[in-house]
Amino acid sequence: MSGPPWQWREDEWRTRxxxxxxxxxxxxxxxxxxxxxxxxxxxxxxxxxxELRDGGRSIGRMSWGQYGVRVGVPRIVSVxxxxxxxxxxxxxxxxxxxxPEEQQRLVGLGHEVGLHGWIHEWNTELPPGAERELMLRAAxxxxxxxxxxxxxxxxxxxxxxxxxxxxxREMELSYDSSLMADEDCYELLLDGQPSGIVEVPVxxxxxxxxxxxxxxxxxxxPYTPPTDVFDIFRRELDGAIEDxxxxxxxxxxxxxxxxxxxxxxxxxxxxATANGAWFATHAEIAAYVRTAANAQNEGExx
Length: 302
Ligand SMILES: [Zn+2]
Description:
- The chain is of the alpha/beta class.
């Protein structure tokens, strides 16, 4: 790779674009139990690693992370339990080591605990080899704590390096949930070849942090009231209902868990339930769309 982008040869920009791409669509013709559409709720339990990942030691910001543990997760879990809904929690290994009982409780209640880096590191800033080592160590750590080997990942801050997918394939992960080439599931291509890994796509539009986070020292301030955030999420959900597709939502315990916001989660669940949703973990969604697509292919080839 040399020179400024406007001087690149065609193979240079093509190679970059083709490293990780969306391949075949994996939207099934039907959902389990005659559901009209699917709902995948996720919570990124970053907790104190939001501060640690940049080398910080701010007591105040770490207390914000601890709010996620003390108030956010219990409040979320009680909403999920009230409605009998299973969800996915993506947990940095350091966060899981700080709060092992939280992860054990979640798995005990039937929720999924998925990979979310070691200390919420930026994958694209790591030296060569470090990303692989951290991903393997994070998977071993989550397995040791919960007793379940994680089968899927979400890169911290959705920061996906050119090596991330190859490492995920080596680890035989079933799915990733960090990319946004579609609203429905698709298979990831690595250098133009099918990787076998399902993408359960995310979007900043469907992420509570994009609307609610703030940073005291910076200019970042929440600018959207909770009622407007709910309206955006509900319109995304209504679109998924109309398409018979997937509604995937990303939330954070210290963000959505507040008294003034937790109702958004409950109203989304109520609206989805009233319209005939299949609620599932990201792992269940990935497994289902993969099996459905393969069966469909076999049927067409016969
Ligand atoms: Zn995160």
